[in-house]
Amino acid sequence: MAPNTLMQLTALGFSNVYVMHVKLVTFGWLNKLLPDHTRRRLVNKHRIVPLALLSLVTLSCYGQPGVALLEENKALARQFFRDIDESSGSLEFIDKWMAPDFQSRFNSPDAMDLAGYRQFMTDALNAFPDMRHEIHYVVAENDLVAVGITLHMVHTGEYLGIAPTGRSIAVEEIVVLRLLDGKIVEEWGVFDLAALQQQLEAPAAGQP
After folding, report:
1. Helix H or strand E encompassing 80
2. Residue 89 belongs to what H/E stretch?
3. How far lies 133's CA from each of 80, 88, 167, in Å?
4. Selection from 60, 101, 90 nearest residue 183 by Cα
5. In this structure, are residues 115 and 100 in contact, taking their beta carbons and an 8 Å threshold?
6. pLDDT in tens, 41-84
7. Which has the closest alpha carbon to 58: 121, 7, 112?
8. Sequence-ordered list of residues with C-beta below 8 angstroms from that of 64, at least 6 positions apart, any chain
9. Can you tell me the distance from the alpha carbon of 121 to that of 112, in angstroms, rounded to the nearest whole number?
10. Which end of the chain, N or C, is less packed with Cβ atoms under 10 Å?
11. What does DSSP say about strands 98-106 and 183-191: parallel, antiparallel, or unpaired?
12. Is the overall model pTM greater than 0.85, yes or no?
């Protein structure tokens, strides 16, 4: 590869201070990895080598903020579900987390707007005020975070037309969140509705 091409790789608009830092890192690795006579020959006669290393180190370093953002989004998703668990039936978590143009799709291709989602969560928390999200995994890609959950709750209010049973319920759920600037913009959720209905409608102990 021509020296001009390699030079173009490093001309990416980085600040002089940052580039100087990367140069120091690059030549530090040269000092560690190469014998003295080899290093002097490469640096003096083939300046292309440290320049190539500079390009690779620079591009690698600039990839790290993406990783940091993914980890931040995963932490935000965990905190979102923690806030629901600690809400004691309050809907304050909606005002904290949901963007004004938020949309949610739960077990349906039809989207709920913020008002619809507020009613959805009101019904759920009235029926299961102690719901707890047991998180099994959190996976992030770009601005999306997927969360695998077992939802634990006690049925103390009417839900799906079924009077309170006092039963402990466990339901599997997968939720995908799209985050922007620390807010949830979109949500897609799938939970095992058949398992929920089966547990709610099952005969009480001692009944046929």
Report:
1. helix 48-85
2. none
3. 10, 13, 17
4. 101
5. no
6. 544 544 444 444 444 444 444 444 488 889 999 999 999 999 99
7. 7
8. none
9. 11
10. C
11. parallel
12. no
